[in-house]
Design goal:
The complex is a heterodimer of chains A (210) and B (398).
Chain A lengths: L14 H12 L9 H23 L1 H18 L9 H19 L12 H4 L17 H12 L3 H12 L4 H8 L6 H22 L5
Chain B lengths: L10 H11 L6 H13 L3 H17 L11 H23 L9 E6 L4 H28 L1 H18 L39 H4 L18 H9 L3 E7 L2 H12 L16 H12 L38 E11 L3 H11 L6 E7 L5 H4 L14 H5 L3 E8 L1
Parallel strand pairs in B: 2-5
Antiparallel strand pairs in B: 1-3, 2-4, 3-5
Helix pairs in contact in B: 5-9
The chains are: A mainly alpha (210), B alpha+beta (398).
């Protein structure tokens, strides 16, 4: 659960249910048949979360392909899932790794689409507004911020997406990004500082005085 | 663009500032630290305020519903099926490839931690494996010629000096290979002719030929082996003085490009039952590697033309034992494929010996002949795989 009390982007499924599905997928033991339907159930309940993670990391154009890649890796690696982390954390880590690999490969194509699309923004202003003095309902402002996010390196973007957009707590972020939990806060603050600087540059590009 | 300007170098201070951005109350000591930082950097307060506003915008995106495309799982299924199809096509072509290509379509490691246990060995033996691969390429190219020459020399050897006939031409039944059996019979004698009171043959073992014809260098006719594989009852036994050599070969097969194999780690739960089934079959030490071909139960060890069994009480050697974890291989049905597979598993010059054996019951469950939902095969059309024979691979060492 997020430590700030903010609701996560996707309501998590009960982890016990995930564990039960994983157990069914693996089969109960010697000579027993595993349950193929359990795998489909497990993937269906997490596919929106995985797709949202991909879309917020790489944009709508590549999100489906990367999410598909992540699903394939999840299926192939499920027998190696040891259950130490929650299934959702493990699955997001796989999706995030796919996104980070993609971003590294595309580093030279920095202007590829990122979440500056209407798809991502749709509905963002029509729901509960967080307590803030910012103009969160201003689509132009949002688009600029997402353009600024696009300018961050993959790891910093992942920090902010996982924390602010996906609503993961620090422990989950540490597990997804495979960093020490104690360093998450400081990394996150540095990512915010980078985002603020990038936002200043975006405003400058748009001829807006910050 | 330098996006790292004005970033506090102090991790502890950065963590405190992050708390501030997210609106958490600070402990007095933390607040004092932040106050000092704000006093030292008058612009810091403005930057923190901007960060709070940006966070608010980003948090608002949580409420933008994003749903995965309806066909996402179907696309993933297609991607998996495409991978498997490529693997299958690659394997179908392997029957017609040059010598040295791997005929196995799928090799599954069913046991835990073998690589971790053998990493140093694998590292040391990697050059040996590379050399073996080179030898294999040349060796398999001359396969047909070598077979003809081998048969001819075997015939000559047997006709001129039965004591030094090639080991590969003979197989001793498990019952005859027990340490407590009487001395070996004369060359060419069969079990039926060596029965004596107390011998296993007298108790419950039906008469069986002790010497297998030279045309079955792997212990049984290949068509029989393929039939057993179709039933899931074929066991490929790799006898290795150095366990690591055999494991290196198997692990190299696992590391083949996907076009040559489709690796899927199966549940560890399969390894135990498989070993339980195969262990009794292995223990009697049935392979004659260390035993001259004439050392058959009932013979006089001092008689001309005979030799004491290498593991006889007077000349003990450790019994062969099952080493490591079992592997499974799924291959295209065909004698050429099976021969090539055996050649890959026990390349000439490697010191390994491959032979074929019959499991007491079908191992289809353990071999994963049916698609394992925990592996890639869940997405497959099972009929593609059901037709592919399977075999267990076990490594025996002393």
């Amino acid at each position: 659960m997020p430590t700030s009390g903010d609701p996560p982007a996707h309501q998590p499924h009960p982890e016990s249910d995930d564990a039960a599905l994983v157990a069914r997928i693996r089969g109960p033991g010697e000579g027993a048949k595993a349950d193929p339907e359990a795998l489909e159930s497990l993937l269906r309940r997490h596919q929106d979360l995985l797709f949202a993670t991909c879309q917020r990391m790489v944009g709508p154009r590549d999100a489906a392909d990367l999410c598909q890649t992540a699903l394939v890796k999840i299926i192939q690696g499920l027998s190696g899932f040891d259950g130490r982390a929650q299934f959702s954390t493990w699955a997001v880590r796989i999706a995030m790794n796919a996104c980070l690999s993609h971003l590294r490969a595309e580093r030279l194509r920095r202007h590829a689409a990122l979440p500056d699309s209407e798809e991502v923004l749709a509905g963002a202003g029509s729901n509960r507004e967080p307590a803030s003095t910012s103009n969160v309902q201003d689509p132009v402002e949002r688009r600029r911020l997402l353009r600024a996010l696009d300018r961050l390196d993959g790891e910093q973007r992942a920090m902010i997406v996982l924390r602010d957009v996906q609503g993961l707590d620090y422990a989950q972020i540490a597990a997804v990004l495979e960093v020490a939990e104690g360093t998450v806060k400081s990394r996150l603050f540095r990512a915010r500082e980078a985002l603020r600087t990038a936002m200043t540059a975006v405003l400058k590009d748009d001829g807006v005085n910050s | 663009m330098n996006v790292r300007a004005n970033i506090p170098a102090d991790d502890a201070l950065a963590a405190l500032l992050e708390d501030l951005v997210e609106g958490r109350a600070l402990a007095p000591s933390g607040q004092a630290r932040v106050d000092a930082a704000l006093a030292a950097d008058p612009a810091l307060a403005g930057r923190l305020s901007a960060m709070r506003a940006q966070r608010a915008v980003l948090v608002s995106l949580r409420h933008a519903p994003i749903q995965a495309p309806a066909d996402l799982l179907a696309r993933a299924q297609s991607a998996l099926e495409r991978e498997e199809r490529e693997a299958l096509l690659g394997l179908a072509a392997s029957e017609h490839r040059t010598a040295g290509s791997i005929p196995a379509s799928r090799v599954e490691f069913t046991g835990p931690g073998v690589l971790a246990r053998l990493t140093p060995v694998v590292r040391v033996l990697r050059p040996i494996a590379a050399a073996a691969a080179i030898i294999l390429v040349a060796g398999l190219s001359l396969w047909g010629v070598r077979t003809l020459v081998q048969r001819a020399s075997d015939t000559l050897a047997k006709s001129s000096d039965p004591d030094v006939g090639p080991i590969e031409d003979h197989a001793i039944t498990p019952e005859l290979a027990r340490n407590d059996l009487p001395a070996a019979p004369a060359p060419g004698e069969t079990l039926a002719g060596t029965d004596a009171p107390g011998s296993p043959a007298e108790i419950d073992t039906p008469p069986a030929p002790t010497i297998v014809a030279a045309e079955h260098p792997f212990g049984m006719p290949l068509d029989r082996a393929l039939a057993l594989a179709g039933e899931g009852r074929l066991v490929i036994r790799i006898r290795a003085a150095e366990e690591g050599v055999a494991l290196t070969i198997l692990e190299n097969m696992l590391a083949r490009p996907r076009a040559d194999r489709a690796v899927a780690r199966v549940n560890d739960a399969w390894a135990g039952p498989m070993l339980a089934i195969l262990s009794p079959r292995i223990e009697p030490d049935p392979l004659p590697d260390s035993i001259p071909p004439t050392t058959v139960a009932g013979s006089d060890p001092n008689a001309p033309g005979t030799a004491a069994p290498a593991h006889a009480p007077g000349n003990p050697l450790p019994s062969w034992r099952l080493a490591g974890a079992p592997y499974a291989v799924h291959f295209n049905p065909g004698e050429r494929t099976l021969k090539a597979l055996l050649g890959v598993l026990a390349p000439s010059g490697s010191g390994l010996r491959a032979s074929l054996d019959e499991a007491p019951r079908s191992l289809k469950e353990e071999l994963g002949a049916d698609p394992d939902p925990a592996a890639i095969l869940w997405w497959s059309n099972p009929t593609l795989w059901d037709a592919r024979p399977s075999a267990a691979i076990v490594i025996e060492t002393r």
